[in-house]
């Protein structure tokens, strides 16, 4: 069902009234984790000022270490929704438990499924029964084929509104957090009709190369990019080393506009 052979034309995902994959480039931005109402408001306001309509923020955080910040849970979803409503933004947040999907639908506009859960088949099935679009991230050790089969799980359960996100894969390289598999972008576009994103933050883990990586992703045919923005990354409760602050985000958006990728 996700194959281009079955459906030659691009799927446009509708996040409320916001189209994704219609030729314009989409940007999903926001903090790694939702930490407080004020933190999310500051980022939401910056997005609004830059004309970005998709706000992200993690409420359920699938952390590698059990001792790391695990997220605010439902309270985080509530904070995100409130900021989204205040600034007229659509909100994207990761759900990790199939039992939370129904509840999440009351708060989020897009259900994110993270890299660590790309093959959580019960979660994929629950997302396939949801009435909200799904932002599916590639597993850090998943092949492109496995990634597409994960999307197939969702679409085959009745939810055709799926966005794919390349977020880097594990290699021996240490100077980036993951290795961005840029060739996955044109391959996914060729093999599938679904919109394709690149997460320029988790793929690189470096804030100094966000702009060239974003340009490469969009030049390779990506429909959009995801990036992490935090009012003060140095005190962030997760991913402090890779998030950009608001002035950096403003500069990033200016450069993207100058390069003609966004209007
Ligand atoms: C995220 O986007 O919040 C995240 C945890 O990324 P990933 O699942 O790609 O590691
Ligand atoms: Mn993060």
TrEMBL record:
Keyword Transferase included in the entry's annotation: yes
A biological process from GO: chorismate metabolic process
Domain of life according to the entry: Bacteria
UniProt GO MF annotations: aldehyde-lyase activity; chorismate mutase activity; transferase activity
Keywords of this entry: Coiled coil, Transferase
Designated name of the protein: 3-deoxy-D-arabinoheptulosonate-7-phosphate synthase /chorismate mutase
